[in-house]
Structures are given as C-alpha cells and as structure tokens.
Amino acid sequence: MEEFLSSYKNILQKAIDIIWDNIKWTVRRQRNYYVVKRGRKKVKRYYHVERLIPRIPKSREFKRSLRNELLRNWSYASHYVDSALKTAYSMINSWMRNYIKGRRKRRKPNIKRRFVRVKETLYTYRDNKIRITIRPRELYLEFDLSRAWFRRRIRGHDLGELILKDDELIITFRRPLEERNTTEYIGWDLNKCSLDGFSPKYGWIRVDLRELYHIHRVHEVKRKRAQSKTSKKPSFKTIVSKHGKREKNRAKDFIHKLTTQLSRAFPKALHGFENLEKQGMYNRSRKHNRDVAKQNWKTIVQFMSYKSRVKLVNPKNTSSTCPMCGGRLLKLRKGQVTSCPKCGLTLDRQLCGAINVYLKMCGFPPSPSIFYRSVSRPLARLMKRRRSALMRGGSGVTVNGGETDDMLPMNPEGVEVEVSQGGYPLTFADVR
C-alpha cells in the first residue's frame, strides 16, 4: 500500500508539473485604486497595472498526450491515471482562481500528503463489501461494512468517490434529491451572532448563532493557554492541535443540524445568501479581525447548497442601502438601527440587510411601489394576524421591541422543530 500511495503521489505531481510548464501567461491591464482621506470625505485614486494572467492548456490533444505520458511505467490500473489528471486540473484551477483574486503567488502547487481518489469504475459494492481494484485480476482491497455503525444512516444512498489514505478510507454517499417546486423566496443576512431572514410569507426570521460563536471563543481561550506553555513543554503542541480539531468538528456538527432544520422547515424555498469574502473585511482592529475569522458563513452556504436550493447575491451595500428609495442609510443606536434621510424609513440593520438580499435575489430594484408590494403590505398582513391571535388569548409576538422567543432551537436528538418567526422592528409604524 505504501508503494501504491507513493506512486500515485508521484504521478499526480508529475501531471501538475507538465500542466504548469505548458501554461501560457498573457499580460492584462488592470484598474486598481487606493483611498485618500480629505477631512471627512474619502476619495478614490485610480491607477493601472499590468498583470500576468495564466491560460491553462485544456485541449483534447494536450490531455491525450499527457495521459499517454503518465501511463508509461505505470503498473497499476489505468483508471488511476484518469483520476490523477482530474485531481491535477482541479488543483490548478483552484490555484488560478485564488491567484486572480490576489490570494496566491506565482508558485506551482505541490503535493504534500499521500492520498488516492478512487473512481466509481475502480470499485464494486456488493453484500456490504467494498472491493477496490489495485491491479486488474491481481491485487484488490476489500472493506467489510456489514458491522459498520453508520449502516442504518446510509440506507437508500449510493456510493460516490472514495478517498484512500495511509490509515483510513473516506467513503462518500449521495442521496437523490427530491424534486421540489420553488414557491417561496427567503433572503438571509449573515451576521456575527444571528442569521436573519426575510420572506413575504413568513416575515422576519431570526436564528440564534451565539452558540456557534461561543464554540470558537471557548477553544480560542483553551488554545491560548496551551500555546503559552509550549515553549516550556513541547508536548503541549499536540494539545493545541487537538483543540483545533475539536473546534472544527463541533462547529461542523452545529452547522449541519442548523441547515438540516432550515431545509426541513422551508422545503419549497429558494434561499438567497450573500457571497461574502473575508479577505475584504479585515481592517486594523485586532478584535474585529478575530471576530471575522471566527465566522462560518461559507460553510453555512455550502451545507445549505446540497440540502436545498441556494442563490448567491452581491453583498455590496446590503446593510447600508435603503430598500425603498435606494438612498444611503444612517446608523443609529451604535449601528443597530438604520434610518434613511431621503425617505424617512427606519429599520433594524439586520432586517434591512435581509430585505435587500431578498430584493436582489428576486431581481427587484429599490422602489417605493416594489417595497410596498413585496415588504410593507405582507408585513402589515402578518402583524394583523398576530395581533388578532394575541387578542384571542393565543400565543403571539411583541411588536414594540419586547423580547420574543424567535430563535431556532438546536436539538441534538434530531427531532423536527418548527422555526418561529421573529418580532418586527421598533419603528414598523413608519413603514407605509
């Protein structure tokens, strides 16, 4: 197995080297800017730079010749060469996307760990046993899943690509998605300690993410204590890495349960999320940068994308643009409330961001008529129903800023729960 894993690693690195040597670099003129402060105003100064952009060879002739080159002196199944080609192109494309965004330098990707991606044509699954072909009709690997702890959870699932490592086999499963007609649209605003959504059918939906932030904060403190002792006792390095793995696993578990409950609560909804990038959010504040680094916005969107339908929108000015007239909003109450000096609209900042995401995903521009039909009138209808329910003695929500039980509960046992809709902003009476 060590020889097989090393051979695959070498052939994968060889494929990357050949693709890298055949990349053509073209010069492109790019427009950049820097900000200059003039009193209270900020002025943009533009300049142009010339940048090298890679062009990756993807022609059929090149791929055929590369495959023939890799098949020389290859003593295992030929389908592993196809797997290595696919992985090499995936790594090169990932590097190119990050290079264009300025996150990577002009350096060739290198393989550091040994692994093998096993295609579906290289294994069979019968009688709860996985049989992987290493050499056709000569050498096979067999794994017995008859006593696996996850047997009940994978009933009705199909096996996907396998990943073979030195000490483990990663098995991927896929379940066919049910065909669902999209009849609802929900725009979600991702924040530090909450996930705020807006929909004309449900109103303002609030999900509590304080527990997720607490997980990161607790392990940050524990890692800091362990790191302070590593200089005196090197064995504490394993404790530091242990806290990092524990933090990652706990955060993933929380997000999996959260996204599962959201997909079950809104099965026919199209969820709109901001396409956030952390690289543009950092500033000179250490506390702010650490808070941004703790967020799992990309993971939430990624997990929701294969459990429900997701659409990404441009996050620019979603919390600072008036959804009714398109004007610039002013921040009140330390940024928690926003007010428009042009039309007088006053909204909670997080609700304003969710409304703007909803309008963007539907393709609606800021307009008083659209705001009235899509936001104001449905919210007034919902508030009227809840007021009547409250007057009849039923359970309701407070309208004047009182605390409500509007957070999505986390249920570790996996019991289905209903998402309760949150209260309305303090100045809802101003929305006409």
Keywords for this entry:
globular, 432 residues, five-stranded mixed beta sheet, 2 domains
Characterization of this structure:
By secondary structure, this protein is α+β, with helices and mostly antiparallel strands. The protein has nine helices and 16 strands. The strands form five sheets. The chain has a five-stranded mixed sheet.
In a nutshell, what does this entry contain?
The chain is an alpha+beta fold and 432 residues long. The chain folds into 2 domains: 176 residues, no CATH class; 247 residues, no CATH class. 37% of the residues lie in helices and 24% in strands.
SSE blueprint and pairings:
Elements lengths: L1 H20 L2 E15 L2 E15 L4 H12 L7 H22 L15 E3 L4 E4 L2 E7 L3 E6 L13 E7 L4 E6 L9 E7 L3 E6 L3 E6 L1 H20 L6 H30 L3 E6 L11 H9 L2 H9 L3 E5 L16 E3 L4 E3 L6 E3 H14 L5 H24 L41
Helix pairs in contact: 1-3, 4-5, 5-7
- Uncertain parts: 394-432
Query: Whole-number average pLDDT?
Result: 84
Shape: globular
Main sheet: strands, sense, barrel: 5 strands, mixed
The overall number of domains is: 2
What's the β-strand tally?
16
Tell me the strand order in the biggest sheet: 11-10-9-12-13
Structural class: alpha+beta
